Structure formats: C-alpha cells, structure tokens
Amino acid sequence: MKHETLHLADYIIIALALAISLTIGLKFSKGQNSTKKYFVSRGSIPAWAIGMSLMATLISSVTFLAYPGEGFASNWILLVQGLMVPVVLLLMVWFIVPLYREVIGVSTYEYFEKRFGLFARFYSSISFLLTHFSKMGTVFFLLALALSNMTNTNTFAIIWVIGFVIIVITLIGGIEAVIWADVVQGFLLIGGGIASFIILICGTPEIIVQIKHTTALFLNIAAWRWP
User: Fold this and answer.
1) What is the pLDDT of residues 170-207, one digit of tens each?
2) Model pTM?
3) What angle in degrees, to the nearest 10, is found between the helix axes of 47-58 and 155-203?
4) Residues with Cβ < 8 Å from 32, sequence gap 6 or more?
5) Distance separating alpha carbons of residues 98 and 204, to the nearest angstrom
6) What is the spatial distance between Cα 51 and Cα 72, in angstroms, rounded to a whole number?
7) CB 104, CB 36: distance < 8 Å
8) What are the boundaries of each domain within the chain?
9) Neighbouring C-beta atoms of residue 131, cutoff 10 Å
10) Rounded to whole angstroms, what are the CA distances from 8 to 5, 12, 22, 180, 184?
11) Under a CB-based contact definition with an 8 Å cutoff, are residues 169 and 177 in contact?
12) How many C-beta atoms surround the C-beta of residue 177 within 10 A?
C-alpha cells in the first residue's frame, strides 16, 4: 500500500519548477528565427552557463536513486565518475566550448562530415540518438517511479507530463531555453545539496563526532607516513 509522503510545500515547489521551465521556454521562443539561433544561439551563451548546463545534464534520477542504492548494496566505485565531473566541466568550458565556436560550427556531426565524409556524420549522429533514447527511458522511469511512490500518482501520467514539458521547452525555445533552464536547475541542485548537508549535520550530532574521529585518524596516518 502506498502512502503519501509529500507536503503541500513540496507540491508547490514541483509546480513552480514546471512553470518556471515553461516560462523560460516561452521567453526564448520569440527570437528563434534561424537555424543557427535555434541550435547554437549564435554563440551568445556564456561559457559558465554552458558548464552549469552540462553539470545539470550529467546529474539525473540515475545519480540520485540508482547510484546511492548500488553504493549502499555493494561499494562506492560509481562515486569516482561523479568526482571527475568538475574536472571534465573545466576542460569543456575552457577548451571544448571555444573549439566549437571557432572551428566546429553548429554540431560535432557537421564537423565529422567535413573531416571524414557523410557516412561518419550519419553513423555518429544515429549512434548518439539511439544511446540517449535508451538512456532517457531509464531516467524517466526512475524519476516517475520515485514521484509515484511519494504522491500516489500513476507512473505513466508523470512520464507524460514531464515529457510534454521538456518537449515544449525544447521545441519553442531552442538550445537557449534548454541551457538556461539547466542553469536554474543546476543552482537548485547545489543549493539543495548544501541545505541538505546543513540539515543533516545539525540534526545528527553523532555525525560531527564521526567526522572529527575520521579527521584525527587521517591526520595520524599522515603524520606516521610523512614524519
């Protein structure tokens, strides 16, 4: 039997998140008058926003649900790739983004065609689409499964609503709307993580004792290794 665990404030936050995302899509829909504007925003998006968008894109329901469950059940090996995200984003912001703007053009696939021919463009683009379509199924299902358990709502209804919002934002707002919506979500993720950490520390005094114990142990090991 499912039990509702969300409060009114939680529903308001979910509704606001969907409304803000749609508003961003509508805001950027007015200027979508060319292919270059729709796909690359004519190179006007700052590098930090692209980096934040990449960070928000890399974090999904798999990150929140599947990885912690796997870590609890077996080991924390999947945490390693998460620790590499800041390094990858810095490289993307400082090297890959300028390369796109100055050399590649609209997309990587266009560049593949220039360098290796039409077959390379079709092969790489189709492979990318198939990979991410299969990935999206897992991401959507995990998200809908969590929300359905918390709200007693039909899983498929949640998939339809969220999928509809995402499609509308992408169709009417282009890459600009997608990136700035990701920026908002990225800051929410960071703010939520910091708030959760503070609540966890303040609500569980034993954690502070464990942190002090672990820190002291690490310092003792370091002092023994490097006298």
Assistant:
1) 888 888 888 998 888 888 888 888 888 888 777 777 77
2) 0.70
3) 100
4) 38, 172, 173, 174
5) 46
6) 30
7) no
8) 8-225
9) 10
10) 10, 6, 21, 27, 22
11) yes
12) 26
